[in-house]
Design brief:
Blueprint lengths: L6 H10 L1 H41 L4 H19 L8 H7 L15 H16 L7 H13 L13 H17 L2 H12 L9 H18 L18 H27 L5 H8 L1 H18 L9 H8 L10 H15 L6 H18 L5 H17 L2 H12 L5 H16 L5 H10 L23
């Protein structure tokens, strides 16, 4: 039988040892700072997107010039000054958390310098009209701020660099989506790899506190409002199953396209051109995104949040049958161009469009529920993180009445995606590790499956 702690000695240790209090103060202060940084990034991104829409409203053809110029400039600056800022940002944090990656080389993946670069370049991408989200970049941004707390912690504080990275990355998701539970699940399902990183109450407090910064500034509103759902009945079974299967297939294909195209190892003409002339390739991708945006009457520009919110609110005219495939292409081309860009919000938009199309096809009266299922299904299929996907969507739309339905859809879609594609973020984290000098790369686990990208 375990003995009870000595109350007097416990109080004495808590009151007279300054190091635990210093550790708590530093971690929570940087949690606040990381949350406020994401709030600033959110404001900057939304303002950039608004300015682009003003430009597009001025002359319909202006994105055909502006978007490719912005894309080329962003890729040139990223490759020259901040290569670690390219892409989503989640793979960088996962790479920094990889066992064997030492403190001297973590600046390749997270730092205050990369935080600033990520904020500016991602917002510039939205100013250019590219199809990208700010939620994935928020992970790297907040992780960079949180990781910088290590220099202020007392010795033997018990808080590791890995714990700070996990707390910062999860706080980024919590603050970006206003979903504290989603941030915690994201930390458990995507970022943590070792059990000892999962049981720190201080880290959980840091995640929640980072998310509260967004609430304090923007209020406690839901990301996509509050959906009105009918009572779940058996009439939803076949349409819901169709949504889950289609999302699993489409999301798996999307993840596989991203892994193959971003690996740069393809032998096709486009991959070869991307390797030789990355800035020119980015300009062509930007032009293609602009053409798609013009054809869709502006629906595919930006993150897709506005369109998703509109179809959730019942404005079905905002979404045509072409929206989903066009948004799919625009998001893939944006990522392939090599700009700093997240895929969370575009994935929700693509999934919402797919759910809407199936609701129209089957003439189902409860379109809102099928749209929400499409959102969670496609996000779960792309990320292969079903628990994170269902909690994020549930919190964003206040869909507590659909808990079991959303969970089932996420599990089915994620399971189908696993048959089509390797895990997206883990694969891209492998690519990030190839940026390290040979001597600093972690040893490969030869007992597991072979590397997805062959010898480096």
């Amino acid at each position: 039988m375990r003995s009870h702690p000595d109350v007097q000695s416990s109080f004495r240790k808590e009151l007279y040892d300054w190091r635990p209090w210093m550790t708590r103060a530093v971690v929570l202060a940087f949690a606040v700072l990381s949350g406020l940084t994401v709030v600033l990034f959110t404001w900057l991104s939304e303002r950039a997107q608004d300015l682009f829409h003003e430009l597009a409203a001025w002359q319909w053809w202006s994105p055909l010039i502006w978007t490719p110029l912005c894309t080329a400039a962003i890729v040139w600056l990223t490759r020259k000054f901040a290569p670690g800022a390219a892409g989503s940002g989640i793979p960088q944090v996962m790479a920094a958390l990889t066992p064997g990656v030492g403190a001297p080389v973590r600046h390749f993946f997270v730092s205050l310098r990369l935080t600033v670069a990520k904020m500016v370049l991602t917002a510039w991408g939205l100013l250019g009209g590219l199809s990208l989200g700010r939620e994935g970049p928020s992970v790297q941004i907040a992780a960079g701020v949180m990781h910088s707390a290590r220099r202020w912690l007392p010795q033997n504080s018990g808080v590791s660099d890995q714990s700070l990275l996990v707390a910062g990355g999860a706080a980024g998701i919590a603050a970006a989506f206003n979903t504290p539970l989603g941030g915690i699940m994201f930390a458990i399902e995507e970022l943590t790899r070792r059990p000892e990183q999962r049981n720190t109450g201080l880290i959980m407090a840091a995640i929640v506190l980072g998310g509260l910064m967004a609430v304090s500034v923007y209020g406690n509103g839901n990301y996509f409002g509050v959906i009105r759902v009918n009572p779940v009945s058996w009439s939803l079974f076949w349409p819901g199953l169709l949504v889950a299967v289609c999302c699993g297939l489409a999301g798996g294909l999307f993840a596989r396209l991203l892994v193959v195209s971003l690996s740069g190892l393809g032998k096709d003409r486009f991959s070869s051109w991307r390797r030789r002339y990355p800035v020119r390739f980015a300009a062509v991708c930007g032009l293609a995104v602009a053409v798609i945006g013009v054809v869709s009457l502006g629906a595919t520009f930006g993150s897709g949040t506005t369109t998703t919110r509109a179809i959730l609110e019942g404005a079905s005219h905002e979404s045509s049958v072409l929206y989903m495939p066009l948004k799919f292409l625009a998001t893939w081309l944006t990522a392939w161009a090599g700009v700093p860009a997240g895929i969370f919000a575009p994935s929700l938009a693509i999934g919402g469009g797919l759910g809407h199309d199936i609701a129209v096809l089957m003439a189902h009266p409860d379109r809102t529920t099928l749209i929400a299922l499409g959102m969670v299904g496609f996000l779960a299929a792309v990320t292969q993180a079903p628990m994170t996907a269902f909690i994020i969507v549930m919190e964003m739309v206040d869909g507590h009445a659909l808990v079991l339905t959303l969970m089932a859809c996420a599990l089915v879609a994620s399971g189908i995606s696993r048959l089509i594609s390797a895990p997206l973020y883990a694969s891209l984290a492998d690519l990030q590790l190839l940026r390290l000098p040979e001597a600093d790369r972690p040893a490969r686990d030869t007992s597991g499956p072979p590397s997805r990208f062959g010898p480096s």
